[in-house]
C-alpha cells in the first residue's frame, strides 16, 4: 500500500526532470545557433560595413588615378625663386572637378543660404518643413529640417505670394533682408547680400594631431567654427583695375544668364572652403535618405598644390603645360589657353576677360582650363621654406590663419595662371599666392574628393 502511494510521486518527479532536460537542450541549441550566426562558430569573421557601389564617379568630376612622378620645376625659373625644385612624389587617387566652379554652380550655394535665412526669419513655416511620421518623428528629436522640394527650384515658392508660396504676412517678415531707407535705390527692391552668411564647424586635424593625447584636452579644443559672408565680391572688376571701364562686368558678370557657365570669381579662399563644406553636407543629406553608409563619399575640399600640379600634368612626365607640349600654341598656330599673349593683347586667344569653363581642349585626364582662364585656390599655405620639409607621399603644408594672425600667415597657394597673366604663369610647376580673405577678378576654384580606396581601376 505504501508503494502504491509513492510511485505516482516518483513518476511526477521523473516527468518534471525530463521537462527540465528538454528545456536546457532547447536553450543550448539556441545558444549554439546564435554562436554560428554571429560568431562564425567561434572564429573571427569581422564586422563588415554595408556594401555599396564604390566605383561611381561624382557628377561633373573626373577620376585622377594614383601614381608617382617628378613634381616641381621643369623649365626656366625666370624669377630665380628656387621654391619649387623637382622631386619624385607619390599622389593617392582622387576625384577632381572637370571644370572650374561656374557662376551657376556657386549661385546654387548662395540661393541655398538665402532661402535658409528666409525660412528661419519667417519662423520655419510648416509648408516648407519636413513632416515626419511615426518613428521618423521620434528620430528627429524635435529638430526641424527644410523640405527643399517644397521650397521649389531657386526658392520660387518663398519669393512669390501666391499658390504654394509664402503668404503676405510671412513675406512681410522678410523685409529685413532687403536694402531699406537711404541704402535702397528708388523703385528697386534688392536683397542685401551682405546678410548671406554660412555658419559651419569642422575638426582641425592639425590641432588634433598636436594635442589629442593630452588628458586635459577636450574635443572642442580642436573644432574650428566659422561664419562666412558667401556672396561674391562683384566690385573686384572695378577695384582690381585703375582707370578701366569694367562697370558692365560689375553689374552683370555674376547674375546675367550669358555668364552662367563662366567661372565664378570674386570669391576668397575662405568662401571657397565654405562652399566645399556646404557641398559635402548637400550630398550627405541625399546619401542618408538612400541609406548609404556614413561617409560613403569623402568630403569635398580644395586641392593641395601637389594634387593640382599632378592632375594638370595629365599623367605625363616633366611636361611644361597641361596640354603636354613645350609650346603655348598648337601645330595650327592657335593659342591653347586664355591668358595675355602680349602687351595690351587680351583677345588673340579668343577671350577678353574669362571664357566658358569648357573652352579649349581638356588635358589627358579630361580636365579643362588647368592653365589660364582663372587662377585657382588650393588648400596649401604659401611658405617658400616648406618645400624641403615636405614628405614625398601626398606632400602638403597647411595653416589655418586666424583673424589676429599676421598677413604673411594668411597666404595661400594659387595655381594655373589667369586670363590677365602672361604665359609664364601657365606652367604646371609655377605657383603664386594670395591672401585667404581677399577676392580677385581672376581667381576661382574647383573641388576635389579623395577616392576611398587604392585605385578605381582595380
TrEMBL record:
- GO function terms (MF aspect): formylglycine-generating oxidase activity
Q: Which UniProt keywords apply?
A: Lipoprotein, Membrane, Transmembrane, Transmembrane helix
The keyword Transmembrane belongs to this UniProt entry's keyword annotation: yes
Q: Where are the transmembrane segments?
A: 21-40
Organism domain of life: Bacteria
Q: Which Pfam families match?
A: FGE-sulfatase
Q: Which residues form the Sulfatase-modifying factor enzyme-like domain?
A: 60-448
Gene3D superfamilies per the record? paralog of FGE (formylglycine-generating enzyme)
InterPro entries documented for this protein:
CTDL_fold (IPR016187), Sulfatase_Mod_Factor_Kinase (IPR051043), SUMF_dom (IPR005532), SUMF_sf (IPR042095)
Q: What SUPFAM superfamilies does the entry give?
A: C-type lectin-like
| PANTHER family hit by this protein | FORMYLGLYCINE-GENERATING ENZYME, SULFATASE MODIFYING FACTOR 1, 2
Stated name of the protein: Gliding motility-associated lipoprotein GldK
Q: Which organism is it from?
A: Pedobacter terrae
Amino acid at each position: 500500500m505504501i508503494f502504491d502511494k509513492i510511485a505516482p510521486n516518483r513518476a511526477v518527479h521523473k516527468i518534471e526532470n525530463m521537462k527540465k532536460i528538454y528545456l536546457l537542450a532547447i536553450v543550448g541549441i539556441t545558444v549554439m545557433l546564435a554562436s554560428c550566426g554571429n560568431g562564425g562558430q567561434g572564429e573571427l569573421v569581422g564586422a563588415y560595413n554595408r556594401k555599396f557601389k564604390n566605383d561611381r564617379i561624382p557628377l561633373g568630376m573626373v577620376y585622377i588615378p594614383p601614381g608617382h612622378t617628378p613634381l616641381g620645376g621643369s623649365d626656366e625659373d625666370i624669377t630665380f625663386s628656387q621654391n619649387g625644385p623637382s622631386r619624385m612624389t607619390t599622389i593617392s587617387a582622387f576625384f577632381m572637378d572637370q571644370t572650374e566652379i561656374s557662376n551657376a554652380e556657386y549661385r546654387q550655394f548662395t540661393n541655398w543660404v538665402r532661402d535658409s535665412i528666409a525660412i528661419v526669419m519667417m519662423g520655419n513655416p510648416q509648408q516648407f518643413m519636413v513632416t515626419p511620421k511615426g518613428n521618423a518623428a521620434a528620430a528627429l528629436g524635435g529638430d526641424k529640417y527644410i523640405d527643399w522640394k517644397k521650397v521649389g527650384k531657386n526658392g520660387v515658392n518663398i519669393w512669390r505670394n501666391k499658390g504654394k508660396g509664402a503668404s503676405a504676412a510671412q513675406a512681410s517678415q522678410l523685409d529685413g533682408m532687403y536694402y531699406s531707407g537711404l541704402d535702397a535705390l528708388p523703385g528697386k527692391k534688392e536683397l542685401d547680400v551682405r546678410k548671406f552668411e554660412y555658419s559651419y564647424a569642422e575638426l582641425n586635424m592639425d590641432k588634433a594631431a598636436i594635442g589629442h593625447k593630452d588628458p586635459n584636452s577636450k574635443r572642442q579644443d580642436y573644432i574650428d567654427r566659422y561664419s562666412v559672408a558667401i556672396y561674391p565680391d562683384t566690385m573686384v572688376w572695378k577695384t582690381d583695375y585703375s582707370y578701366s571701364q569694367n562697370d558692365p562686368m560689375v553689374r552683370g558678370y555674376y547674375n546675367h544668364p550669358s555668364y552662367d557657365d563662366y567661372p565664378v570669381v570674386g570669391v576668397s579662399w575662405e568662401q571657397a572652403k565654405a562652399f566645399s563644406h556646404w557641398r559635402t553636407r548637400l550630398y550627405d543629406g541625399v546619401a542618408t535618405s538612400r541609406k548609404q553608409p556614413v561617409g560613403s563619399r569623402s568630403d569635398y575640399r580644395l586641392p593641395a598644390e601637389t594634387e593640382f600640379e599632378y592632375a594638370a600634368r595629365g599623367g605625363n612626365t616633366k611636361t611644361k603645360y597641361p596640354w603636354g607640349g613645350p609650346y603655348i600654341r598648337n601645330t595650327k598656330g592657335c593659342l591653347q589657353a586664355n591668358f595675355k599673349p602680349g602687351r595690351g593683347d587680351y583677345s588673340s586667344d579668343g577671350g577678353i576677360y574669362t571664357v566658358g569653363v569648357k573652352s579649349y581642349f581638356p588635358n589627358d585626364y579630361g580636365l579643362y582650363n588647368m592653365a589660364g582662364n582663372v587662377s585657382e585656390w588650393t588648400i596649401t599655405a604659401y611658405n617658400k621654406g616648406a618645400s624641403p620639409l615636405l614628405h614625398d607621399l601626398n606632400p602638403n603644408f597647411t595653416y589655418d590663419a586666424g583673424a589676429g594672425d599676421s598677413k604673411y600667415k594668411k597666404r595661400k597657394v594659387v595655381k594655373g595662371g589667369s586670363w590677365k597673366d602672361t604665359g609664364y604663369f601657365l606652367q604646371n610647376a609655377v605657383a603664386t599666392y594670395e591672401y585667404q580673405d581677399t577676392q580677385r577678378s581672376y581667381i576661382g576654384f574647383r573641388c576635389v574628393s579623395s577616392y576611398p580606396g587604392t585605385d578605381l581601376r582595380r
